[in-house]
Structures are given as C-alpha cells and as structure tokens.
UniProtKB/TrEMBL annotation, chains A, B:
Name assigned to this protein: Transcriptional regulator, TetR family
Keywords tagged on the record: DNA-binding, Transcription, Transcription regulation
Coiled coil: none
GO MF, any single term: DNA-binding transcription factor activity
SUPFAM superfamilies registered for this protein in UniProt: Homeodomain-like
InterPro entries documented for this protein: Homeodomain-like_sf, HTH-type_TetR-like_transc_reg, HTH_TetR, MftR_C
Domain HTH tetR-type, first and last residues per copy: 12-72
Pfam families per UniProt: TetR_C_14, TetR_N
DNA-binding region: 35-54
DNA sequence: CACTTCGTTGCACACTGTGCAATCTTGCAC
DNA sequence: GTGCAAGATTGCACAGTGTGCAACGAAGTG
C-alpha cells in the first residue's frame, strides 16, 4: 500500500487514454470499424504501446481499468457465517456499485455491444477470466476444491450468467431501473430454483 | 425433406474432412500451433475453402457438424404441460445423448481445450449462438418475449453454464461417469436454488 | 444439350497480435 | 546530483487470420 509513484500513474494514464479513445471511436463508428492504429493515434501513443496494455482489442473497451480482483476482495469482506449464495450476492452488489459510479460510460459500452452482435460473445469471453477468479474465491470461502467439487464452479458460472443477463436488461431499459434491483430479481429467481415464469 | 443430393453430400464430406483434420492436428500439436493452411492441406482442399465452411478456426474444432438447431427440436417434442425447467432438462438430455454417440471425439476435443486455457473462452463464445437459440425456444414454449422478459434469457444462460460445467467435469473424470448423471447433478443443484455445498 | 446454381479455388489485401532490440524516463542508492 | 537498474514506449519485421472478388468446374434442371 505504498505511494503509487509517478511511473505507475503515467502508466495508468496511458491505459485510461487508450480506453477512452476506444470508447469514443467505437461509439462513433462501431468497434469493428475502428483499427488499433486509429485508437493509438487518438490516444497519442504508438500502435505497439496499445498491446502493452491490452492483449486484445476488445479488452480496451470492456476492461478500462486494470485487472481488478474486486470480487474476491468484496467476498472476503462478508460475514463468515453467511451462506455462499447470499455472500456472493452481496459481493456482486458492491461490484455493480462500482459500475454504477461510471454509469454513462458503461451504458455506452453496452450500446456498442448491442449495436454489434458479433461482439457479445467477446464480452462473455472476457468474462471467463473473472468467472474463474470468482470460482476460486468461492472455493476458498467454502473450503471446497475448485477443480473437483461441483459447487464453486457452478455457482460462479451461474452468477456470471445472471450478471450478464442483468447488464443486458439494464441497458435495454436505458439504465433507468436501478442495476441493483434488476440483479436482485435475477438472483431471486435463481435462489427459488427457476420455478417458472413468475417474474415478467 | 427431399433427397440430400450429391452436391450437398460432397459439401458435408468436405466439412467433415476439415473437422476431422482439425481434431487430429489439434490433438497432436495444439490448436494454436496449427494453421488453417495445414488443416486445409490435410483435408485435401484449398486454404480458401476452409472459410467457406467455418468462419473462425475454432469453429472447425467445436462444431464439426452443420449448425444444428437440435435443442429447439427436442424441446418441442416434450409434453406441453411440463414446466419449463424439466422440459428444457429433458431436451438437453437428448442433446447430450448425441454427444455421447461421439464419445471419443468429444473427449478429445475437450482435451484440446483443457490443454490450451486460452481456448476455453472461445468455446463459450461459440456457445452463445446456441444460448440465443435456446432462449428463443424457451420463449416460444412459455409464450414470453425473449427480449423483454427475464425468464427465457436467464434460464437459457444458466442451463448453458450448467452444460459447460458438466462437460468440464465429464472430461476431468475421463468420461467414465455417465454424462447424463453429471448433468443431472448440476440441474438438481440449480432446481434446489443453489442452497449450499451439499453435492461434493 | 444448353443453362443455371453453387462449391471450390487463387489472388490480393487490411488488420491483428507477437518477438526483438533500441531508446528514453522514472525510481533509487550512493 | 550522479550513476544505475527497472521498466515503459517505440519501430520494425513477420506469421497468421479472415474477407472480397472473379474465375472455373461439377452438379442439378429443363
């Protein structure tokens, strides 16, 4: 927890500039129509530098900040005696709060995805890394083995889905409904065992 | 439902040859280390022809047959009064039976994925098309709207996850446990509302 | 036997993503 | 402040992906 340091700060600035340029250009022309070269130019850095920060073009759109292990941190903060599902749900609420702090940008990102159906899979693709981390955090909390036991992997996978579906609905409603409530609906349906189409 | 015709048959042969060559080479060297050019050569066709059948390299590994809408068909066959979750579960059992008919090949495909972690996301990526189809089939059955109602999209997403987790477990156990039973365990946990780590 | 349809092929091309080496700036110790 | 190590940026070359286009030939149709 030492001082960030000038070097680290400039690095984050570069990443942020690239992410911002990506978002702006993608909103304008669609991500597919924008080349990495254009993004780098708009951010004032070289083509090669782009790949020092992001390994894939999509990453610049969908992971503007560094690889945050926020879920694991938030999960660890929950009361130890809380069952896994409520604990994970509370942790994800915190993650969603972070997203909500950047409302406009995230709604724009979701718009870019909605406008280019081919990109939706890539969003999911980026999400698998987080899903893996989530599974490991759940395994650590429950004392299970992430590789042999069913529960951690299944819960993480299912919650990732709920998150994805929720973001999709949130965007389709113009971000007017509170993200929190939409996610709550999804998790409630899960906790009830997907009994049937009760929630319209 | 007319006769397939010689032309159509040859087309399927070409696709099958490409898929088989892809699997063989990928098992041997890993998919990333194999180029499309090598695959095409091994299948006895030109480089360009590969992309007449598959739009992405991964597709040749993970979708050896044509784009089958098997789930929707199987779902339509279920008793109309059956609730959505059991109906979808039964339909997916049929899909899994199809996979099981090709046991060895599918276990090999899963091995290729397991050996190359970077590929797992791409599997998910390919799966999103099926997920969308699944959501539409469920929407049609329940009379809900796939775009505005929560239920179809959520159920399809969650079942896709269960399927993915199940295939993963199946492979890790060497394909010895019946695919059917592993999937049943996952869906049981879902139907129970993910109460806690009861199923070890 | 025309005539259409369509899968295959070759070619050119824009772009992605990587390895490598050079350069420059920051952080740190003396 | 001077020198040195760490690391971020850059340029260059390169393998490979995926696409558009036009030509060719075999399969389907009358």
């Amino acid at each position: 927890m030492t001082t960030p340091g000038l070097r680290e700060r400039k690095k984050q600035d570069t990443r942020a500039a690239l992410a911002a340029a990506t978002l702006r250009l993608a909103v304008e022309h669609g991500l597919a129509a924008v080349t990495v070269e254009q993004i780098a130019a708009a951010a004032g850095v070289s083509y090669r530098t782009f790949f020092n920060h992001f390994s894939v073009k999509e990453e610049a759109l969908l992971r503007p900040a560094g690889t945050e292990r926020t879920f694991a941190v938030h999960l660890a903060e929950q009361e130890p005696q809380l069952p896994p599902l409520p604990a994970a749900r509370a942790a994800l609420r915190s993650v969603l709060a972070d997203l909500d702090a950047d409302r406009e940008a995230w709604l724009q990102r979701l718009s870019v995805i909605a406008a280019e159906p081919d990109l939706l899979p890539r969003l999911v693709e980026l999400g698998t890394a987080d899903e893996r981390a989530m599974a490991e955090a759940i395994a650590a909390r429950t004392g299970l083995d992430v590789d042999t036991d069913l529960y951690p992997g299944l819960l993480a996978a299912v919650l990732s889905c709920a998150l994805r579906v929720t973001l999709n609905r949130w965007h389709r409603r113009g971000g007017r409904e509170p993200l929190d409530r939409l996610f709550g609906e999804a998790v409630d349906a899960l906790a009830a065992g997907l009994p049937g189409p009760s929630a319209a």
